[in-house]
Amino acid sequence: MDIFHHIWIFLVKLLNSQSLMEKARNQAEQDKKYMQMAISEAQKALKEQEVPIGAVIVSGGQVVGRGHNLVETLCDATAHAEMQCITAAASTLGGKYLKGCTLYVTVEPCIMCAGALAWSQIDRVVYGADDPKRGYTTVEGRVFHPKTKVEKGVLREECEALMKDFFTKLR
Ligand SMILES: [Zn+2]
Fold this sequence. Notes:
The chain has helices at residues 3-47, 81-93, 111-120, 156-170, and strands at 54-59, 62-68, 101-107, 124-129, 149-152. It is of the alpha/beta class. Helix 1 (3-47) packs parallel to helix 4.
């Protein structure tokens, strides 16, 4: 191989790594934007004296489902934000599987919601605050569908603050 070939390969690699970085940056921006929408959903829950947790589901850059915690309103222990959101998205998309979709939720999903998300075969789950008491990571073993990618900590402080304020005022 001559020197020009080496230079050529170097340039191609450089361009590839830059476009990957660009992609990651865009993804991070998108994640923040949609998490902000999930926070707006959580604020709706707060106004209704519900534990402030909100969620949105996005497919191809479109919000296809929204939901917030409605446990008290519906008097239903299963009326978590994610459950509302999964039902809404399936109804919008006209199919039970949420392939190609991302769920954004302000707090780490519980085992029930993680199980429901597994059944939906969703592509990606992004959450803000950890839930060390009731989150799905308190359980050993794989809960999500093997193809589901998980990301946490997006707008963590905002998501945590909502929960902290709510529970402080309760006391
Ligand atoms: Zn849940």
